[in-house]
UniProtKB/TrEMBL annotation:
The keyword tRNA processing does not apply. This is DUF4440 domain-containing protein. Keywords: Plasmid. Residues 67-174 form the DUF4440 domain. The lineage of its organism: Bacteria, Pseudomonadati, Pseudomonadota, Alphaproteobacteria, Rhodospirillales. Residues 1-30 are annotated as: Disordered. Coiled coil: none annotated. The keyword Zinc does not apply.
Amino acid sequence: MSTASRRCARRRGIAEAGGRPGSPPRLAVSPQGISIERWRSTDRGRALKGQRMAVTEQARRVIEAAVLKQEARRCAALVADDIAMLDELMADDLVHVHTTGIVHGKEQLLEHASRFLRFYDVRRGDLLVRVPAETVVIVTGPMTNLVGRRDTDEKIEVNSFVTQVWALENGAWRAVSFHAVKQA
């Protein structure tokens, strides 16, 4: 594992597996309370053979609930104009694609949200949550924002379809990717 990969793994709260080249990363602390020793004894052999490790149904439910809670916090923070909360919910390497096609990193997005746009309402429709691994979640579904520019009283409703990727970083779920497409 390269130095950059180790740094990225540490930032995301992942430990190196056995220190051997090619060993799969694993959670330093499992969100389900499964010990690393138990993980090693049950799944390590499959992972080393390159097989995809399935997330148990119980783990999927726990992870899904945690990520949906974070998404609800994100929506509430936008409406409350709570930039500090938004900062906490986003990964430092966030890529955010707006419905207009503008692409922002975390710092640019926080600046945009605090100085340019005002969110009056953020509503999510039915969400599809996929948990391909214990440290990554993909959320897709509709979103309706009632927004306005801070320098006017005009409000517009924006309907979009969103794909989000959340990753477990240092024990907390953070948004690493957000891509919104405008819907008619």
